Amino acid sequence: MLIQEQKKEVFMDIRIHSIHFDATAKLEAFVQKKVSKLEQYFDSIQLAEITLKVIKPETAQNKHVSMKLKIKNGELFAEKINDTFEGATDECCEALSKQLLKFKEKAASKKKPESIKKTSIFLASKK
Questions:
Q1: Strand partners, 36
Q2: How high is the pLDDT of residue 108?
Q3: Domain 13-126, what architecture?
Q4: DSSP string computed for 43-96
C-alpha cells in the first residue's frame, strides 16, 4: 500500500516595480529567486512588493531597493542603498530574514505559555 503525503503549498505573490529605469529579465529573476528563499523562514508570506529605484543624480551609491512583506498577522519592511541592485537586494533579504525569525519566535512564545498552563493544571489535578 502506497501512502502519499500531501504537502501544503502556499505561493507568495511577488511584485517588482522599477522606477526611473527598465529592469532587465536577469535582474527580475535574481530578485524573485532571493525573495522566494524567504519562505524557508516563514511559510505564511502572502505578498512581497519590491521597489527598485535609481537615485538621481548619478553617484556611487545610487541603487535603492525597498521590500515590503505582507504576512498573516502583519507587515515587514526593509530598504537598503548600495552600488548594485543585487547587493541591495541581498542586504534587504538578510534584514527581512532576521525580522521573519524574530516574528516567528514571538508568535511561538505567545502560544507556549498557554500550553504550559494546561500542563500545570493537568499535573495539579492529578495530585
A1: none
A2: 84
A3: 2-Layer Sandwich (3.30)
A4: S-EEEEEEEEEEPSS--SS-EEEEEEEEETTEEEEEEEEESSHHHHHHHHHHHH
Predicted confidence at residue 7, as pLDDT, reads: 46
Q: Domains of the chain: which residue ranges?
A: 13-126
Residue 45 neighbours by CB under 8 Å, 6+ apart: 10, 12, 38, 39, 69, 70, 71, 100
At a CB cut-off of 8 Å and minimum separation 6, what does 19 contact? Answer: 51, 52, 53, 54
Alpha carbon distance, N-terminus to C-terminus of the chain: 46
Burial of 7 (0-12, 13-18, 19+ CB in 10 A): exposed
Average pLDDT over residues 37-66: 91
Q: What is the pTM of this model?
A: 0.76
CA–CA separation, 70 and 56 (whole Å): 29
